[in-house]
Design goal:
8 strands, two-stranded antiparallel sheet, Rossmann fold
Length: 213
């Protein structure tokens, strides 16, 4: 796969997983700054392919998948698995005192979510509010026993990569379309501006659901 054909994050992941599968890609730190998990190119691709099988059983191509997970390996895997299977990820923050469960129900309806992937604490909160009956809500599955889906769906540059919802500080949140072409162009701009190389290491503490995440 030549560099000029790297039109999406999945293209790049496939290339790197083949050429440098053991190279660490993401490190995850706890509140004390200690590493508790990491993903290499190879381990991320394997997990993405396994979750891809799970997503393919529960949704169809083009479906919106809301992601309500903390910054974690599970969030990254779910986001990439959506891209891998031609599902459209919708990263979202989680319910709290300011934004209650009904607020998110409106967002789920607005984007037409076919599935919400979350953790047990958020699931329990939705259940406490009595809202799970109308929600296709699932916790992140155990991947060990899932057979990997080894063939990604072909994508074009102008197709939707993901939906990024606005903060809703002045009105109800709106879903903004971000294409695969948008993502790649933005990453190239960041690389040029900061002078990143293969040896660069970035540290981020902005939540992954955030538009700067």
């Amino acid at each position: 796969m030549s560099s000029r054909h790297l039109n999406s994050l999945i293209d790049k992941l496939l290339l790197r997983a083949e050429s440098q599968p053991h190279q660490p890609l993401y490190y995850f730190l706890d509140t004390r700054g200690r590493e508790y998990a990491h993903l290499t190119y190879g381990s991320l691709l394997t997990a993405v392919q396994q979750l891809g099988t799970w997503l393919s059983e529960k949704t169809t191509s083009g479906d919106r998948v809301a992601i309500q997970l903390p910054t974690s390996p599970e969030f990254v895997i779910t986001f990439f698995a959506c891209l891998y299977t031609n599902r459209i990820p919708v990263p979202l923050s989680s319910p709290n005192r300011k934004h209650n469960c009904e607020h998110y129900q409106r967002i789920f309806a607005d984007c037409g979510a076919s599935l919400i992937v979350t953790d047990t604490s958020i699931r329990d909160l939705f259940e406490k509010e009595g809202l799970t009956a109308s929600l296709p809500l699932h916790t992140f599955p155990t991947l060990a026993d899932i057979e990997p889906l080894t063939t990604p769906v072909d994508r074009q540059n102008n197709e939707i990569g993901f939906l990024q919802y606005t903060s809703g500080s002045t009105s109800f949140p709106k879903g903004v379309i971000v294409s695969h072409e948008n993502i790649i162009a933005n990453q190239k701009m960041i690389q040029r501006t900061f002078g990143h190389s293969n040896n660069s290491v970035g540290l981020a503490w902005v939540p992954l659901f955030h538009d700067m995440g």
